[in-house]
Amino acid sequence: MKKLMNIMLLMTLVAGVAFAGDSDKNEAKAQTISGYLVDVACAADFASHPGRGVAAKHTKGCLQMPECAKSGYAILTDDNKVIKLDKQSSETAKKLIADTDKKDNWKISATGVLKDDGFAAESLKLQ
Predict the structure, then answer these.
(1) pLDDT under 70 in the chain at which residues?
(2) pLDDT, tens only, 46-72
(3) Which residues pair with 73 in a beta bridge?
(4) Could you tell me the end-to-end alpha-carbon distance of the chain, in angstroms, rounded to an integer?
(5) Among residues 17, 59, 95, 108, which is most buried (max CB within 10 A)?
(6) Distances (CA, A) of 115 to 88, 102, 104
(7) DSSP conformation class of 117
(8) Which CA distances in Å does 113 have to 32, 101, 120, 125?
(9) DSSP one-letter string for 35-90
(10) Chain CA centroid to CA 47, Å
(11) Which conformational region is residue 111 in: left (phi greater than 0), alpha (psi within -120 to 50 degrees), or beta?
């Protein structure tokens, strides 16, 4: 019986070490991205017309339209990638938009971690 208990204890320890090793692989590193703050509803259209500079002309009025705000927010990078913000970061973006007098040219820098449900921004800063 004592031998069986020792084997079970050893297996538990081995499993714990293996699990701890896997958690390091799943932790994403913080990164900083920059681009234009856009709503998700407009992002695909902006990405498909990169040469027209429409993201720079995107207005506060559009960002705050109910259907646009409801879609959440994203960052359209200089290389034309759309990086969707997660729900909490979209709420932070909504507050940032409301708290400024800026009318257009929503160039932004965001630091955070890219996750399955979007970019989890630790900070959003207007440039």
Answers:
(1) 1-27, 51-52
(2) 888 776 678 888 899 999 999 999 999
(3) 39
(4) 68
(5) 108
(6) 12, 29, 28
(7) T
(8) 9, 28, 5, 15
(9) EEEEEHHHHHHHHH-GGGTHHHH--HHHHHSHHHHHH-EEEEETTS-EEEB-HHHH
(10) 17
(11) beta
